[in-house]
Each structure stands twice: as C-alpha cells, then as structure tokens.
Design a protein that fits this description.
single chain, 343 residues, alpha/beta, 8-stranded parallel beta sheet, 10 helices, 8 strands, globular
C-alpha cells in the first residue's frame, strides 16, 4: 500500500449554513428538556496521552518529572501518560538514558536525519522496551530526503515529520511529492504525523479581523484540505511557533493572577487557534488529530505543558465538540497510532 498522489484541492468545502432555529429550543415551556452544554473549562479527556514531550538536554527522568509536576493540577485525579520525543541533539544519549526506569512512558519517538538516517537508529528502535516510532525534520524535498523517508516507512513504524518551512504552495507540492514517492509500492505504509502546521507559524501582529481574509489564511485552508487527502497522514496539535511564549492560563475555579493584558492574550490565542482548528477538523476529522505539549524544536520560546493543555483543550471544546472528540484528540488517537498500531 502506498500514498497515491491525490488530486490538487481547490480549497476546503464550505460547511452548510444552518438556520438560527437549529440552535434554539422550541418554545414549549419545557426548557429543561434542553440542558445547557457543559462549560468548555470543565471538559477534559478521560485519559490524557501527551504525544510530544520533548527531551533535549535534561535527564529523561527529569523531563518526565517536570511534565508530571506541571500537569498535576490540570489533571487532578485523571490519568496522564507521556510519549517521549527525543530531540535530534539527544540521539547519542538515548541508549544510556533509556536503560533507566521507563515505567511512566507510554512510547518513545527516536529522531533521524531525513537526508541521511543514522546507522544507530535501527538498533535503538529495535531495543527500546516501549513502543517506538521515528521522527525527522523536513525543510525541502530532495532525492536524498525521499530515500530517507522511504527508509523510515520501511521500518513499519509511525513517522513524525516536523515541517520547518513556511508552507507555501511550492513547499506543499514538495511535501506531497516526497510523501507519495517515499511510500510508492510499499505493501503497508505506516502513519505519517505532520507537526508545526496546527497551528502554523505566524505573526501575532496581524489582527484577527484581517487574518480571516488574509491570503496566508486562505492558503492554509487549501493546503490542509490537500494534505488531508493522504489517508494515513495525521496532524499534531502543538504549541504554535508564534512571536510570543504560550500565555499562562489560570486553572478553572482559581482567581486569575494575570494582568488584564495577559487575560486578553489568552483569549486572543484561543480565538486564533480556533480559526486554524476549524479547517483541520473539517478536512481531517477528529480521528487524525493528536495532541502534544512540546512545540517544534525550531521554537525558541517558552511553553509550559499545563498552559498549552488548558488553551488547546478549551479552544477545541469551545467549538462545541462532543466528549468522544476530546477523548480522541487528547489520548485515543495517540494510543491507536503510537501504541496499538491501529491506523
């Protein structure tokens, strides 16, 4: 099975317009039959799997402990699990670090260089005591990059691709080309998970009211629609590489200590994120979106796991999705792809 080259999309479909009456209960005097939807701040996944906890320079156990400490309050008594993603500069330390206790780790993602996969990666992915997949960085297409991705797909394991390039139409064509050629004539191609595109890198200086009709946003919708035609391509829902750190989000029920400016920034982030989530949900469906708390390794700004979890979760919930949707994006899809191999 391979990734056939899909026809070029002319843009996302427009959702049908529903009459206002579709959102209003009939005037029967029995409004209790139409209970209010739960507040987005109260909707959590039943089990969280954070599919992108990046280990860069700290000890593996320190990274997991930091994540657990940051997520203790948002999770309360809920179950939280992590999928460790080793940064490229950590490759030589993986073998030593993973001889330690991995009981708190659900799966691991091992990096390789797209144009020239390292020889030690093969040994690592076969010896790690947890389900293991691969990750790489895409900047441009080349025959070497195509060969490297094919090498990874032939291992039969999921492959994360961090798209560290502005997704112009030209870059999109290159990405589509490498996806198609690398999987050509493979009996069974594993999933490919794209990151750094939901939300895409952008500049917060562009006002939201201008973003809606901006060429870059219209192009994003068409590009997402085109990528969704690859049936085994997923999208990771990560902190965006914007020109600001992820804003701190007070926990529900607590008194915000942030200034009015910070609170306004949190709301602006959620509004922008929902603008990008909408087209991705329409194109990919909730079964092919996977939450993670660490941004692309190209980011140089701070993002705490708890802050992104709260913003990402509430942005999704504010779109009016159901509980099973939240369960899938924040846990079920990661389990299917990285742990169970169901895709």
């Amino acid at each position: 099975m391979s990734f056939p080259q899909p026809p070029r999309s002319k843009g996302p479909k427009k959702p049908p317009r529903l009459p206002l009456s579709a959102f209003t209960p009939p005037n029967t005097g029995t409004s209790e039959s139409f209970p209010l939807a739960p507040s987005p701040s109260t909707i959590h996944p039943e089990i969280l799997i954070d599919a992108n906890v990046v280990v860069q320079s700290k000890d593996l156990r320190d990274t997991v402990k930091q994540w657990s400490d940051e997520m203790a309050e948002p999770l309360e008594k809920r179950t939280g699990n992590v999928i460790i993603s080793f940064a490229p500069n950590y490759l030589n330390q993986i073998a030593e670090d993973t001889t330690k206790d991995l009981s708190n780790i659900t799966a691991a993602i091992v990096p390789f260089t797209l144009e020239k996969p390292e020889s030690e990666v093969e040994k690592l992915i076969s010896e790690l005591p947890v389900p293991t997949s691969l990750s790489t960085v895409f900047t441009r297409a080349s025959p070497e990059a195509t060969a490297g991705l094919r090498w990874a797909l032939e291992r039969g394991r999921p492959v994360d691709i961090d798209v560290q390039a502005i997704l112009s139409d030209a870059v999109l064509e290159e990405l589509e080309d490498i996806l198609s050629k690398a999987a050509e004539n493979l009996d069974s191609a594993p999933p490919v998970i794209l990151s750094n595109i939901l939300p895409p890198p952008t500049n917060l200086d562009l006002p939201i009211e201008k973003l809606m009709n901006h060429p870059t946003y219209l192009a994003f919708q068409a590009q997402i629609a085109a990528l969704s035609l690859f049936a085994k391509v997923y999208v990771k829902y990560l902190p965006p590489v914007w020109n600001a750190p992820t804003p701190h989000t007070p926990l529900p029920g607590t008194t915000p200590s942030s200034s009015e400016t910070d609170i306004g920034l949190q709301k602006e982030w959620k509004t922008r994120i929902k603008m990008y989530l909408g087209p991705v949900i329409e194109a990919f469906g909730y079964e092919r979106i996977i939450f993670g708390s660490s941004p692309s390794t190209s980011s140089r700004l701070q993002s705490l796991a708890a802050d992104w979890y709260e913003i990402a979760r509430e942005a999704l919930a504010e779109l009016g999705v159901e509980q099973n949707f939240v369960n899938a994006v924040f846990g079920g899809n990661a389990e299917n792809v990285y742990v169970d191999g169901r895709n």
